Amino acid sequence: MNMLRQTLAGLFLLLAFTLVLGLGYPLLMTGIGQVAFHSQANGSIVSYQGKDVGSSLIGQEFKGTQWFHSRSSAGGYDALASGGTNLGPNNPDLLKAVQKARAQIALEDGVAPAAVPPDAVTSSGSGLDPHISPAYADLQVARVAQAQGLSIADVQQLVDDHTQGRILGFLGEPRVNVLELNLALAQAGQ
To answer: I want to staple 127 with a disulfide (CB 3.0 to 4.6 A). Which of 14, 45, 54, 75 is the partner?
Structure first.
């Protein structure tokens, strides 16, 4: 009889904890996330003219001289294939790829190869970083301004307006979200 009582008590606790921790807690956290952090809980979706165009958390490719370009992606901007190249700093394949990208970007933006910042020729750890450095954004201003038919000062102002500082004033580096910058650029060009 004692063993039956202990088994029933154990089953009751299993059921109670399953309901509380397996159902109640996730529902509570989902509800709090939806109320307090609605945009973040739903993927930080960015809309333009009523249409969802991407997420401010995931980088995407922009082709053409009229747009600011993102960092290169080892996974081809596919969120399912995120990740770096896993090539070490002395790997000859990585060095060749960096040199090729540096030469291509320098030619496209009309600068010396030495002026191309590191984030322009390397992918992030995830391969999906939505940000570029202010230096890489500044490098692209003249090309984008010419292609868009805007003044360099206006395009530079857009870059300055979309440059985010360090988190809490001391964490990370200043950065520019390419999707948000390109959307502002599209609005300025209208």
So the answer is: 75
